[in-house]
Amino acid sequence: MKTIAATLLAATMAFAEEPPAKPDQAEIPFAGMDGIRDWREDGNRALYVEGRNRQWYRAELFAPCHGLNFAHSIGFVVEPSDTFDRFSAVVVDGQICRLKSLVKSEKPAGKKKD
């Protein structure tokens, strides 16, 4: 009986634990007026964006953005607030790719493709 009770107690405690906290959503103000310094792709589902303050952010996309991992330039859609945030989008070869999240990040490893 003790084994069953211990198992039930362990299972109850596992369900009672809080899920890991989600990182706070970030924003880059004045993105349309030189607020974004640099960017680097992270495959076709995310990218890193450097703000004017040299802070890096990781932008996760809702869906694959075809061509992002080969693009030499992209557009940042920041209307109407001029703030790049999780409600913004990027444009790659005419394709609009909406953000799912934007969180602060460390500088990505590696060099940007030229």
Topology:
Layout: H1 2-16, H2 31-35, E1 36-41, E2 46-51, E3 56-61, E4 75-77, E5 89-92, E6 95-105
Antiparallel strand pairs: 1-2, 2-3, 3-6, 4-5, 5-6
Summarize this entry quickly.
With 114 residues, the protein is α+β, with helices and mostly antiparallel strands. It has helices at 2-16, 31-35, and strands at residues 36-41, 46-51, 56-61, 75-77, 89-92, 95-105.
Description:
This protein has 114 residues and is of the alpha+beta class. The protein has one domain (21-105). It is 18% helix and 32% strand. It has two helices and six strands, in the order H-H-E-E-E-E-E-E. The chain has helices spanning 2-16, 31-35; strands spanning 36-41, 46-51, 56-61, 75-77, 89-92, 95-105. The chain has a six-stranded antiparallel sheet. Strand 5 (89-92) and strand 6 form a beta hairpin. The longest helix has 15 residues, at 2-16. The protein is globular. The model has no long low-confidence stretch (mean pLDDT 85).
Low-pLDDT segments, ≥5 res: none
Helix segment count?
2
Strand content: 25-35%
What general form does the structure show? globular
Please state how the strands of the largest beta sheet are arranged side by side.
1-2-3-6-5-4
Number of strands: 6
